[in-house]
Amino acid sequence: MQCACPKCKATIEIQELEIPVEGEFQYCSECNEKYWVGREDFTLRVYRKQGNIYCSDCGHELGCENLCLNCGSFFPAYILVQEGRPAVRKQQRSGFFLARKPVRRASEPVRLKVEAEKITGSGIDRRWLAYSVLAVLVVVLAVGATGLYRSYQQQKAYARNFVIALYGIKSGVDLNLKAAAARTAAWRKQEGSMAVLAPPPAEKERQRLAKVKGAIDTALEALGETPEPAVAARQTLDQLYSAYLKLYSLNQENPSSLEDFLDRQNRLKGKFFKTAETLKSQMPDNIMEELRDAIPKYRNLSFLI
Asked: What are the record keywords, sorted (predicted)?
């Protein structure tokens, strides 16, 4: 918008889109004197005693008419150009003043003035600070969710391996008790004969018992590190494994008497099932859930449910 300087009457260029609502002082490029530029509503023209006014719609200088003779706007808001700051009118203080948004002329390019609001003393854009905080929160949540998911997967894998190891131990106990019962029956058949030693297990049975023991050891190694909720259950599982090892060793030995052989069998069997009762109360929920799901496959563990 082109206006006339109130001092030297030189033509000056005013960017009406950059004029704040409260107005401001600008400097003439010819005489270097300052002048006031502001926007006012048509209702304040009655107070206007100095300065030039220009239609805010088209930039044409206004006279005393109630409309702009150039663009035809009735009661147009206007741009005020004068030497000093205008007095604050009662209408402005009471809220009667209505600032109209200036309309850009088609021939005038749009100039956008974007000023980022800065944090006092730091020079950091608040928007970027907010984005940074949000990004940190997203990363923290993602890391936390990943950690929780990984922990869940580890506990699930541990529960599965725990049930497999428990099944192996119970199967090993059952096989050793069966082998011991077969030796007992064979020993009783020798009563009254010259034989004084317990009949050893058949070689095929020995190989079978050794193979099962190897599978149990592998299952226990697969457990790895024990999660905190399953520490007590793991300790009890080790006690069951200890009872199993004693039964396994009993079948590898040559006991001195049938009574001693039977007594050791019964004591180890009783200890195993008593320890298993303790295990039932120590297994955490995820292991119990895995155990229930595995019962159709590992039926010899049904006594723990």
From this structure: Membrane, Transmembrane, Transmembrane helix
